[in-house]
Amino acid sequence: MDSDLALVLGLGLSALAIPSVVSAFSDNRAPRASALVILIAGGLIVYALRSHPGGYALEDIPDAILHVIARYKFW
Questions:
Q1: pLDDT value, residue 1
Q2: Total number of domains in the chain
Q3: Which domain does 27 fall in, by range?
Q4: Residues of 15-32 as b/e, b for ≥16 C-beta within 10 angstroms?
Q5: What is the secondary structure of 35-66 as a DSSP string?
Q6: Which pLDDT score is estimated for 75?
């Protein structure tokens, strides 16, 4: 898997899991599914950081997102 794709998938999954965690805590439920999604997202992000030569700087993340969107555009 490409490191840019892994980073974007990890960031996207973590962004989607945050509302689920907040909802679970507000309903006094255990956030089981969202915790699993956060673990998967964290694994993808760690994989991307370790497999990309030189790692990612904070200013490289928008470029990686745009490269993935441009590569896998759906229109």
A1: 79
A2: 1
A3: 3-71
A4: eebeeeeeebeeeeeebe
A5: HHHHHHHHHHHHHHHHHSTT---GGGHHHHHH
A6: 65
